[in-house]
Amino acid sequence: MPFRGRQLSGEKDCRVGLVANRSDNFLSVIVPSYNRKEEIQALLASLERQELSSDHFEIIIVDDGSSDGTDDWIYDFSKKARLNINFVRQDRQGPGAARNLGMSSAKGDLFVFIDSDCTAPPNWLSIIKSTFDRDPTIRAFGGRDDARADFAPLLLAINYSMTSFLTTGGMRGGKKKRLAKFYPRSFNMGVHRELYEKIGGFGALRHGQDIEFSNRIRKSGEKVVYIHDAVVYHKRRTSLRTFFRQVFNWGVARINLYKIDSSMLEPLHFVPALAFWFVILCTLGALIFPAVFVVWKYIALIGLLALLLSAIDAAMKWKNVTVGLLVPLVMPLQIAGYGLGFSLAFLRRVLLRQSEFSGFVKKYYK
């Protein structure tokens, strides 16, 4: 199938082809990537199995300066794949800029975003296209992410924690009840070309730029829908250390988003930080004051019971005891990481009025 490329920053030209049989609501699937060759391989394999004919979509891989041979592999893959692939490059400008470059390179009416660490079931694109075909007034959508049963136990435990109502208030995982507004996220979202031309692309934030983009989508007044059945399978961070860094950065990002638009900070977002410091202060108080210890032991028992019930639920959901054993470790780590990042960013950006704070940057992917 055709492979298209463009020359950027002195990089070599790629073979050029054309997208065939353009149709209404043609989809441009945009994927930013940096040294994620193995993830790109799995993602493209899943996109090759889509029920939707490749005449109805193109794939734009935006490489952010990779050095792992991603370009050579995609060039070879495109020779035999049944896909329309456009490979473009930029020089280490971040995922937001990569998605913007993807949109400026796109031929489609609808820009669909998926992260490189995701894969899509065969009906993903057909569900998205049929939703927009049925209602031409829709201008943006968000979908959910989930895990597959063949993921490693740690990934399943992280997925359970990330989609639990207890830890996220229903904001992730497609929960019908939510304690805060739903924002489409870049691992599974889309925006119509007309809306993109109206509000512009992603901002310069290193973390949270998809939420800021979604906030502008919401404020545009255009119709935004949540498509529950348009699910992607998300391989989250593969170690506890990288997971902690990720959620820490999310806590930092929430304050940075607040500094852009105060409506992006809601009461629910304070909960992890309050819980983190409540546990720290109560533990210290219990060591000093016997009366505090008496009260604290009952609160601690309630918390342990909640973790135990979550562990049992996770083990039953995935039919895997190891997942259940990991959940009581992952859930507190998520709350602590987010709460600590949120607290430090609040201190530096709100109380001390510093201009910026980015969290983990240089070693974020290590």
Describe it.
This protein is α/β, with parallel strands linked by helices. The chain folds into 2 domains: 3-241, Spore Coat Polysaccharide Biosynthesis Protein SpsA, Chain A, CATH 3.90.550; 258-351, no CATH class. It is built from 12 helices and 9 strands. The chain has helices at residues 37-48, 70-80, 95-105, 124-134, 153-163, 165-168, 193-199, 209-219, 240-260, 271-288, 290-318, 321-351; strands spanning 3-5, 27-33, 57-63, 85-89, 110-114, 118-119, 138-146, 188-192, 223-234. Strands 1-4-3-2-5-8-7-9-6 form a 9-stranded mixed sheet, sandwiched between helices. Helix 10 (271-288) crosses helix 12 (321-351). The two termini are 35 Å apart. Mean pLDDT is 89; it is low at 6-22.
